[in-house]
Amino acid sequence: MANSDLAARIRPSKGVHLILKSDLLGKEEALLIPKTPDGRIVFAIPFQGATLLGTTDEDYPDLEKEPQVEAREIDYLLQTLQPFIARPLNRSLVMAGFGGLRPLLSSDQVQGTKNLVRDHEVEYDATSNLFSLLGGKWTTYRLMAKDAIDAVDTQLQAPRGCLTANHRLVGANGFRLDAWQKIHEEYGWDESICRQLVNTYGSKAAEVAALTHAAPGLSERLHPKFPYISAQIVYAAQKEMALSIRDVLARRIRLEICDWSASKIIAPAVAKLLGETLGWPAEKQASEAKKYVQMVNVWMQNAGINTGQSLP
Fold this sequence. Notes:
8 strands, 9 helices, about 300 residues
């Protein structure tokens, strides 16, 4: 958009991941399939008490539509994993899934997204004086930021050492792996809840727990199968800028990517907690919960999963 003479550099690639029942590989084991019949790489690893299976890789031209898990993609991943697993694999093992887009660097000489590089580049256009950070992925975001800032510094002839490698993220200062024990002693909660709080918030876990002093009901689990408590919803709205049910379930505690059925069950409770914190009237709380459940039902239908019963 800054220079119409430049060719398009980004080629979106869709990838989906599935969450399967936890007993497929065991808690300490992972599996890498280095080459599938169509030339991709598939992996299965322990994740959040379940098994994460991924990933697909294909062009995605419809950028106005959120990428969703489709039944054919589930079948492909399960069929690829099946030769390495003794028990029969089918869609009933799928608890949830999620899709995303990779911003791959395009090339006219490369056919298919699986052959495109996953690296990033910093490009400077002298005509528009614009720097563009192209490609990359979540796991390299700090290096991407460093390379972008270093490139700008070089252009300005003012090189400065980048500090990101030693910059601690929120919750890292004062973090202790055994901090869950202190929360357990003070509040008497189940060990799984205490560990989850520390693993999620680091040294900020005590702030989340402290919300229950004024409102003891916030110590209740959101769902009996998972170690998330109501205080986390309030904390997300107060401190983490959460404004919707999906903000909380997909982007804060991540239950949405682990169990669709459980997410639907707790949607009304999440809407109530969010509403009370953000000032929603009761009508909006109900409508937000209804919209969320309907959205998840569409995902499950597209994935070929029964929406009317809890998954195993």
